[in-house]
Amino acid sequence: MAIIRKLQAVKTEQDHLLGIQDLSFSKVTSILDQAKTFITLNKSASKKTDILRGKTQINLFFEPSTRTQSSFELAGKRLGADVMSMNIVNSAIKKGETLIDTAMTLNAMHPDIIVIRHQDSGAPNLLSQKVNCSVINAGDGSREHPTQALLDALTIINRKGKVEGLKIAICGDILHSRVARSNIYLMNMLGAKINVVGPKTLLPHSIERLDVKAFTDMKKGLDNCDIVMMLRLQNERMHGSFLPSPREYYEYFGLTPDKLKMAKKNALIMHPGPMNRGVEIDTNLADDINRSVIREQVELGVAVRMACLKIFCKKT
After folding, report:
1. Other C-beta atoms lying within 10 Å of the C-beta of residue 249
2. For the whole prediction, is pTM greater than 0.90?
3. Which residues contact 100 (CB under 8 A, 6 or more apart)?
4. At a CB cut-off of 8 Å and minimum separation 6, what does 17 contact?
5. 171-206 pLDDT per residue, tens
6. CB–CB of 112/56 below 8 Å?
7. What is the DSSP letter of 314?
8. β-bridge pairing 167-171 and 82-85
9. How many CA atoms lie within 13 A of 125 on its CB side?
10. Contact partners, residue 18, CB within 8 Å, separation at least 6
11. How wide is the angle at C-alpha 170 spanned by C-alphas 288 and 217, nearest 5°?
12. From CA 296, how far away is CA 91, in angstroms rounded?
């Protein structure tokens, strides 16, 4: 009985990053401040440190990912951790093994941190209850994607100097977007004013309860905004008819030069990627070096994930 209580105590005390809603303002500030130090390191000739030397990081991605998975892998290696990225296609999971069985198997390898992306909302939380190491959510279903929101905040701060008082428009598939949810939680915490913009079929019911203003007219939604954050259409999560056609969607909700005129002249353009050019965003706007910070988001994503790995990795 004493052994069971001891194991439960370990899990209770363990630090995880499961969602923005679980973070305090001071914790967010700590992550962003730490990430700023890694921006400089990542631009130096020698990019490696030994902060996580001797630590083991397992990347467990149940959904396809380019930016997030490679970003976490690079972040772990730059911190000196031993990084293992599991190939789900060839794993026992494809043979019918459950997430809990996988968790028990991984736990027996004594990792210090597991980074998980899963198609089901709540999977990282379940995993965190079954292992004796830290867990970082790299995206779960339509629920949250906390490190994306953190890197978005760092990108804005890096360009604008602050988030507080800015007017941010989050546009597109709000209904299915974990990026939208995490950003709404975080940007509200940091003092921004938020508009969400999209067709009625892609706006969650009672979205205003999250302290945002909802618009189905994109020009009105972008009016006087400092940041225009476009979202990918989550076609893989759409079961039924949400859109008439990609062409019509672009006409009304794709970011074009004409619609962007409604935002401030120095408004920044963001997108978490991957982009559907000509559907969600005009190609020239996506590549505009003066307005678009999409590539900067990718660059700063490594710094943010380094900060998260350092702060949340199991302490010994």
Report:
1. 21
2. yes
3. 126, 130
4. 23, 134, 135, 136, 137, 146, 147, 308, 312
5. 999 999 999 999 999 999 999 999 999 999 999 999
6. yes
7. P
8. unpaired
9. 12
10. 124, 125, 128, 135, 137, 144, 146
11. 95
12. 34
